[in-house]
Amino acid sequence: MPPGPTTRLLSERGTRWLLVVVLVAQLFLIAAQLPDPGGNSSLLEASLLRAIAPLGRMVDRLYDLVGGFGDELHLRRTLLEENRRLKAEVARQRQRAMEAWRLEQDLERLSRALDYVGAELGPLRAADVVFVDHRPFQRTLVLWTGGQAAERNQPVVAVDGLVGRIVLPAGAYAKVQLITDRSASVGAMIERNRRQGVVRGVGAGSLELDFVSLQADVRVGDRVVTAGIDGIYPRGLPVGTVLDVRPGEELFHRIRLRPAVDMGQLDLVYLLPRLAVPAEMREGGPDAGS
Amino acid sequence: MRGLRFAGALLVVTVAHLLGVGFWSGFGLVFDLFLVLAIFNGLDGDTFAGLAGGLVAGLVADAVSGGLYGLHGLADSIVGYGTAFATQRLVVQRSPSVFLVFTLAAALQQLTLATVTLLMLPHPEFTSYPWVVAKVIATGLLGVIAFLTRRQLLARFSLWRRTRTVRVRLGR
């Protein structure tokens, strides 16, 4: 059986009392997080995350190294074909960029004429995903944010759309609450008709759009984007696509969404600058995003 | 010395968990290496070490995952203490009994997690039944593998100690 004789630090009776103390302390620790399971975090958790996350990063790099070697062998074979395809894509994108530039000029001219100043999205910052956990009620990922620490409530996006928000910055690492988490919610709207509602995670990787009245025209396939009304996420980020619409309780639709981002395939995400709303403006405002 | 051994094992387990999660994000649904370590640590019957090991392993498990912090800490503390308490009264020497201890301990952990979740979370969400069964069986199998590996290594070490030859130098 495991080790031989050991020196006991506590008697059986003392250990029993210690067990009671440890259990009660942990119940308090859990209870303290309940009002906002994704948001509040203890100093102990942040310290442990700081200590463990470098290991995760090391493992991630190991994967990159091994995977990179295999990818390189594969890519070499298809390099010429890829190059040809990319050149054609660049030509198409240049054309689109010219059109976008023309539209931007028009928009700027019109904005100036109307004295309109919109909120700027700001620069994106790339961050590596160190590890992801998809256990039930534990849908989070941990990022390596490098020298510049992330801020709490900073929006996190991927190429395809919204991923979530930072809930625990810990030095060069940060924990992200995914929008598919049960305790997450996002102010959103249907892109086609600008009808606003609140998207919340319902577990099992899917989303629901709440508070859209039965009179609203909602169709399967409609794109849902952030509405920019919750003080956390800027407007226009893709959140998901309508999968199913049914009459719900009271006067609202029950709308199920497919997330725009496949959370299981994330390896690189982007942090958006936090659009901090002044505290005095937040009071009495919508409690979205928490 | 024992604390150092445990810390080393915890480091190995953490790296293995991160490798597993990196390979397959649902790794944590089936395998809980921190639980295996907590049970294994409690097998010598020292309740204090079992409790402390379970607590530390559980808190590290909580840190590498999301959700409520302390949930696994609490469950693994009970499991570590419970395993040590049980092995003071039972003889656990053969593979079937080791398998039984590990599976029962894993079931106890799942029961504790479910109870705490049900009592404390406003919208409790549980792991589906097949995953729970898979985790309990996987913990049992990993426990047996760890137990047999350790026994093999100890036997080899003991043989080496008994048969080693010492070169005696009598000076120049």
What does the model show?
The complex is a heterodimer of chains A (290) and B (172). Chain A has a domain at 125-276: Thrombin, subunit H (Beta Barrel). In chain A, 34% of the residues lie in helices and 27% in strands. Chain A has helices spanning 12-33, 43-114, 279-282, and strands at 125-135, 138-144, 155-158, 161-170, 173-178, 185-190, 196-201, 207-210, 223-226, 238-247, 253-259, 268-271. The longest helix of chain A has 72 residues, at 43-114. Chain B is 76% helix and 0% strand. Chain B is built from seven helices and no strands. Chain B has helices spanning 2-23, 27-30, 33-42, 47-63, 71-87, 95-120, 129-163. In chain B, helix 1 runs antiparallel to helix 3 (33-42), helix 3 packs parallel to helix 5 and helix 3 (33-42) crosses helix 6 (95-120). Chain B is elongated and about 75 Å long. The chains are: A alpha+beta (290), B mainly alpha (172).
Instruction: Compute the number of strand runs of chain B.
Output: 0
Low-confidence stretches of chain A: 1-5, 285-290
* CA-CA gap between termini of chain B: 38 Å
Computed over alpha carbons, the radius of gyration of chain A is: 24 Å
The 3D shape of chain B can be described as elongated
Major sheet size, sense and barrel closure of chain A: 6 strands, antiparallel, barrel
Tell me the series of helices and strands of chain B, N- to C-terminal.
Answer: HHHHHHH
Largest pleated sheet of chain B: none
**CATH fold name of the domain at 125-276 in chain A, please?**
Thrombin, subunit H
Q: What Rg of chain B do the Cα atoms give?
A: 19 Å
Give the proportion of residues in helices of chain A.
25-40%
- Straight-line N-to-C gap of chain A: 49 Å
> What is the H/E string of chain A?
HHEEEEEEEEEEEEH
Mean pLDDT of chain A: 80
Low-confidence stretches of chain B: none
CATH class of the domain at 125-276 in chain A: Mainly Beta
What portion of residues of chain B belong to β-strands?
Answer: under 5%
Biggest interface goes to: A-B, 55 and 55 residues
Estimate percent helicity of chain B: over 70%
Query: What is the count of DSSP helices of chain B, taking H or I runs of 4+ residues?
Result: 7
Q: If strands are numbered along the chain, what order do they take across the biggest sheet of chain A?
A: 1-2-5-4-3-12
